[in-house]
Amino acid sequence: MAPGNFTQVTEFILTGVSDRPDLQIPLFFVYLVIYGLTVAGNLSIITLTSIDFQLQTPMYFFLRHLAIINFGNSTVIAPKMLINFLVKKKTTFYYECATQLGLFLVFIVAEVFMLAVMAYDRYVAICNPLLYMVVVSRQICLLLVSLTYLYSFSTAVVTSSSVFSVSYCSSNVINHYFCDTVPLLALSCSDTYFPETVVFISAATNLVFSMTVVLISYSNIVLSILRIRPSEGRKKGFSTCTSHMMAVTVFYGTLLFMYAQPQTNHSMDTDKMASVFYTLVIPMLNPIIYSLWNKDVKAALKRFLTNPCSFK
Questions:
Q1: What is the DSSP string of 104-161?
Q2: Where are the transmembrane segments (predicted)?
Q3: N or C: which terminal CB in the chain sees fewer CB atoms within 10 Å?
Q4: Cα distance between residue 98 and residue 181, in whole Å
Q5: The sheet that has 173-174: what strands, in order across it?
Q6: pLDDT 10s digits, 148-182
């Protein structure tokens, strides 16, 4: 921390999603339901893809890790958020805030690259099916997932360290419902050029690279589907592709809106609503979009509910 004659901040106060007292209890129940569905959906996916022998394929291996990431991301944010709906003073200690930011960055960066990995997996499966088990072998799957987690952890350490390398002095009210980079840097009483540059370069690099992989993969998938002769086959392929692209578009769209714009253009209230999508809503929707509409997962769930002992 930079030395100075200011009183160093030891805790922050979160304004929350809304500062209206009459909305606190209704919002608490809304987000409690969202978080409950998120936990139930993602834990179901993690369990089924771990114990069902018919789901031991690369696609469901990546899906399991996406569910782990979604569960982790929402759990870093939601419990503290729910508590703050019920208390008058929404405080978070300095190191608690730093920890939340670091964990949030780990999971959000991991999700960005896991979606890219899943898009590549579908590209190989649809466009090069004969080489699928060679190109996406178990060793390659483990390598891709390990690199995703290692890179996201490294990025989180660098970014969160740069955000908390500046001084926070008099103002400690964060205009957000969790400790995020932009509202935190807005409170700093020292020069924020370096951390702002780190955040912008990191976000832009991650988004451009992962979006390039996703766009190239799905473009080739669409071209392959268009070559399918039976119209029913094309409809089925497009239905799956559309669902995936819908989730990817919402996720990347909100991240681009949040981070790939100049600091002066930020509206904190608008950013809060965008943040709700990728911290709470998307983790709830992903189990539905990626798996609960999937016949293999529904069949595995049915087998588990009818005869859970068969999975032992």
A1: HHHHHHHHHHHHHHHHHHHHHHHH-GGGHHHHT-HHHHHHHHHHHHHHHHHHHHHHHH
A2: 28-49, 61-87, 93-118, 200-226, 238-261, 273-293
A3: C
A4: 10
A5: 91-93, 11-14, 173-174
A6: 999 999 999 999 999 999 999 878 999 999 999 98
